[in-house]
Each structure stands twice: as C-alpha cells, then as structure tokens.
Write a structure and sequence with these properties.
The protein has a single domain, classed as STAS domain (Transcription Regulator spoIIAA, 2-Layer Sandwich), CATH 3.30.750.24. The strands form two sheets. It has a three-stranded parallel sheet. Helices cover 53% and strands 17% of the residues.
C-alpha cells in the first residue's frame, strides 16, 4: 500500500510537491492511503488535486482511503461540497 503523509499546511506552495507525491503513488499500482491527521489548513487547489487523484485512481481500479482525516480537512471539503467525491464521508473525522 502506498501512503501519502499530509503536512499541516496544504497551501499553494505545497501543491506542486504534493502533486508529484500523488503521481508517484498512483504509478505504484497499489492501493493508496492518505494520512490526513496533521492537516490544519488546506487550500481549495489542494482539494482539487485530491479530487483528481480520486478520479484517476477510480479509472485505474485502485482503492484510496483516508486515515484519520482532520476536522479541518473534512470541514474544508464540506464547504466545497467535496466530501463524498473525496471519500471522506466513509472516513469520518477526528
């Protein structure tokens, strides 16, 4: 299983590095787990990256699951109406 460790601040500056991590994780062909416990602030552009990851993983038949998504992460996704598309409704929050 490939694991993505989220930083506390997922802003535009972190988006490029995160994008590369997500691409690398997809290329493993393994199920993905995203550790979201540390997230304290997340930019809409990063949520879009995660949405792209979910869509691509689905098209490849790869399961993606969230592990310990922070309340800040879930609340930000809720504001944009992305909780279900990101799979956060199954993960719950802290």
């Amino acid at each position: 299983m490939a694991t993505i460790q989220c930083q506390a601040e997922l802003d535009i500056a972190a988006a490029s590095t995160l994008h590369q991590q997500l691409l690398s994780a997809l290329q493993t062909g393994e199920p993905l787990e995203i550790e979201g416990q540390a997230v304290r602030r997340i930019h809409a552009a990063v949520l879009q990256l995660f949405l792209g990851l979910m869509n691509e993983a689905r098209s490849l038949g790869l399961p993606v699951r969230w592990h310990n998504p922070s309340s800040a992460l879930v609340e930000s996704a809720q504001l944009l109406g992305l909780v279900d598309q990101l799979g956060l409704s199954e993960a719950g929050s802290n």
